[in-house]
Fold this protein.
Amino acid sequence: MTEQTTLKVTVRELAALMKQTAGVAVDPAELERGVDSGFDAFGLDSLGLLGIVGELEKRYGLALPEDAEKCKSPADFLKMVNGSLAAGV
Amino acid sequence: MTAGEKRRAVVTGIGVVAPTGVGVEAYWKATAEGVTALGPITREGCGHFPMRVAGEVRGFDPQAMVEDTFLVQTDRFSHFAMAAAQMALADARLGRGDLTDPFSVGVVTAAGSGGGEFGQRELQKLWANGPKHVGPYQSIAWFYAASTGQISIRGGFKGPCGVVASDEAGGLDALAHGDREVRRGTDTLVVGAAEAPLAPYSMACQLGYAELSRESEPDRAYRPFTPSACGFVPAEGGAVLLLEEAGTARARGADLRATVAGHAATFTGASQWEKSREGLAHAIEGALAQAGCRPGDVDVVFADALGTPEADRAEALALADALGPHARRVPVTAPKTGTGRAYCGSAVLDAAAAVLAMEHGLVPPTPNVFDVCHDLDLVAGRARPAELRTALVLSRGLMGSNSALVLRHGATGSDE
């Protein structure tokens, strides 16, 4: 259970994933500020988010919920991802 | 434009990504000088194929031409198309400020090969590491329609969009489709084709083409209309033309460079080159009829020039059938012997070369072709100055499509 904290995906990591998988360059501080706005505000579309879902599933060896790529905002997405990680797969 | 005047499409901009040059100036300079870019195939993983020579695009930096967000989700063929589209818009001096209505701009591309390199990479991940390692952009990047979609998304163009999948001749058919969209009411069409078939999977797909040259000496590998014709050399690249409704283009002060005056297409079956004679002749006659041109009006022919004895003979005879005695007098050229055949991309490159030839009053030569064995006035060696008002561009595909396109210099249309 102590692993919960180490398994947490941060806003900074999400910004890096957006760049790596979708080519969307976003400053982590800016993503932090706009964490409740839509992914589209940063230029990330649903296929881009699907790529991030795939990358996280590979990285943590778990299956995220089926509608993970339908999250509208970074905050919703991180909550869902970190909730899944915390649930311990 | 007055109420009674017909809508027609004029070329106002050209963007080129060719083995002989990136950008319209570099391309035309090389084309007019008869420069050849054919060389050994150097792309990774392509060394063991029986095809030894190709026209590779060098000096193209995708990152300098296309944003990262598009690069990660697209194949090289779409990089070429997006870059060429951007260059065509810039060449036409059509900026975002001119495009106040996104629904007035459409996009049409043709593709014969699709995103083979991207697709291969993702399929290798699938079989090496498993399904979770395949990225989501595999769903769109390989697809023939990818370039049309990405050009429209990138530019915010919301007018009629289309993709022509009709063999190599699709490059000309796309221009005709763009012309029809202009006539039907859309003011601006971004039209072209680009291909990137020089990657292992795509090369393997071409192995069955008996018409591919196996010659390893670049200067001998693609010599249509000569006794040493031994097939064609594949290439990558392509071109995009900006078509605008003549009245709209004139109103914004654009340069009305050429008119898409006529087009016709026929089909005569895969690799049945003897039959392409009749099909190509019909296409030429149809295109001239739509353009309101007589055979004698044709000032230059950009030949398909497939490069096998049977196909070359069929093309020469088709010209004789359709143009009569004029077929022996009209200058014929095939600048694609310097670039190779970039499938659909070649037909649009030829259309671009035709517009530039009319503007410069110069018929570009056919590199590496000297000893012509057909009853044609093939322009070999060096470019030939000539007053050019009407150009006939021909294209045939390996699967049996034949197309002819008539371009006229400036804004002269059939009803003027």
About this structure: Chain A has one domain: 11-87. Chain A touches chain B at residues 19, 21-25, 43, 47-48, 50-51, 54, 57-58 (CB under 8 Å).
